[in-house]
Amino acid sequence: MKAHDGLYIDGAWRPAGHPDEVIEVVNPADEQVIARVPAAGAADVDTAVRAARAALPGWAATPPAERAARLSALRDVLAARKDEIAETVTAELGAPLAFSQAVHAAVPIAVAGSYAELAASRPFEEKVGNSTVLHEPVGVVGAITPWNYPLHQIVAKVAPALAAGCTVVLKPAEDTPVTAQLFAEAVHEAGVPAGVFNLVTGLGPVAGQALAEHPDVDLVSFTGSTAVGRRIGALAGGAVKRVALELGGKSANVILPSADLARAVNVGVANVMNNSGQTCSAWTRMLVHRDRYAQAVELAGAAAAKYGDRIGPVVSARQRDRVRGYIEKGVAEGARLIVGGPESPREKGYFVSPTVFADVTPEMTIAQEEIFGPVLCVLPYADEEEALRIANGTVYGLAGAVWAGDEAEAVAFARRMETGQVDINGGRFNPLAPFGGYKQSGVGRELGSHGLDEYLQTKSFQF
User: What is the pLDDT of residues 330-361, one digit of tens each?
Assistant: First the structure.
């Protein structure tokens, strides 16, 4: 894995303003430093934003068919480099290689392709009565992305922005910057004009804040914690600029009495353990009718125990300690530990044991706050109304699941859930479906046509 020692600005790799300030990238599986990348400062961010601003008129005026062609080329480059992508994500994030190949590499390729098709097919003008309504690019986008799905989150922001005719400055998470550099190489190879896409690696409080508050950034798209999202929203609000925020989650997996219990529990446990639990939409609260609760707890514990050697580490020592702290909090508040616990399962690496808690009450910390690790809480309910109160009883509303023997029964329950996306009886991921949250899980949507709309503004001509 080779890292660049510069920033990708205006179509070329350039040295940072302070080349001696670097970020060390650590492999979370063995705790070894595997790369060093520049830690950009505010001046570097300003240079990148100015490059994006200068490139905006030309890219915005580029016909949608040509923008679609560049995105198609980007998809093809990513597809050709999918093995390298998977290996890089595995090295930086610690995800097992098979998962990196199937998800971290494959999903962004599909999403890039979907925006190539949308750019070519979506009408950017329409007639409404005696008016012509134009859908125009919002301008320069500041994209700030997380480490948990490093390439997917980049593509989910950059691809629709480019399809809309916007230019972009990307500030990726400091834990996974080499994946972002690989993406910049792909953008360059795809023939995207200079200045349309720019990459600045750096720390959130420095480069991220400089990007969010820059006066020439028209929209900030951020994925990460709700606390940081509030800060970005405040910075953007002061300048009256648009934001798209995809934040935390504490999603409920509601298993109704008529469901196939074994299947619902096994799929639910797998959902939580994927990516070592580092998924904002993970179904981390399993709700089961009290008549089937003991059986569900037994099934969940047995299923989770099988993941001991199958999941990778969490991304960093800080994240490991955070997750362990939540596990300790759960025990202290009276939850019953079924499998796992705070002890490290290995001597080396940032590993956390797959953990299942039973006898969890809705007000416990582990049932209310996002843990972002391989930790499942199993909660009982007496009837559907109580299940609904528990499911909706957090500040979050990002995703969820409902299981029932009858699909209509599951849909009826899902309609009452305060969340942005619900999987019915194990429904498959759809890269064209809008993704985003209710309440403190965010503002706006990603993916598909709804994701493209975030990067457009409207103008009307009256005749």
Answer: 999 999 999 999 998 999 999 999 999 999 99
- 35-48, pLDDT tens digit by residue? 999 999 999 999 99
**Beta strand 140-144 pairing with 219-223:** parallel
Write the single-letter amino acid at 186: A
Residue 313, sorted as left (phi over 0), alpha (psi -120 to 50) or beta, turns out to be beta
- Looking at the DSSP bridge assignments, the partners of residue 423 are 401
**What is the rounded distance in angstroms from the CA atom of residue 28 to the CA atom of residue 323?**
15
- Name the 3-class secondary structure at 342: coil
Averaged pLDDT, 107-124:
97
Query: Torsion angle, CA of 4/7/8/11, rounded to 10 degrees?
Result: -110
The burial class, CB within 10 Å (0-12 / 13-18 / 19+), for 369 is middle
Q: Enumerate the β-bridge partners of residue 253.
A: 286, 401
Query: Which one of the listed residues 92, 213, 246, 370 is annotated catalytic?
Result: 246
Task: Look at the chain and count its residues.
Answer: 463
Provide the 8-state DSSP code for 173. -
> How far is it, in rounded angstroms, from Cα 38 to Cα 32?
18
Q: What is the spatial distance between Cα 374 and Cα 355, in angstroms, rounded to a whole number?
A: 6
Helices 407-414 and 384-391, interaxial angle, to 10°?
A: 50
User: Active-site residue 377, yes or no?
Assistant: no
Burial class (CB within 10 angstroms; exposed 0-12, middle 13-18, buried 19+) of 356:
buried
From 166, 174, 213, 280, active-site residue: 280
pLDDT in tens, 240-287: 999 999 999 999 999 999 999 999 999 999 999 999 999 999 999 999
What are the angstrom distances between the C-alpha of 98 and each of 106, 176, 274, 310, 316? Answer: 11, 18, 12, 10, 21
Q: Return the sign of the alpha-carbon dihedral for residues 206, 208, 209, 213.
A: positive
Whether 166 is a known active-site residue: answer no
Helix or strand run (H / E) with residue 92: helix 82-93
How far is residue 11's CA from residue 195's CA, in Å, rounded to a whole number?
6
In contact, 280 and 428? CB cutoff 8 Å: no
- Separation between Cα atoms, residue 292 and residue 297, nearest integer Å: 9
For residues 297-302, give the mean pLDDT: 98
What's the pLDDT band for 194 if we cut at 50, 70, 90? very high
* Cα–Cα distance, 337 to 359 (Å, whole number): 9
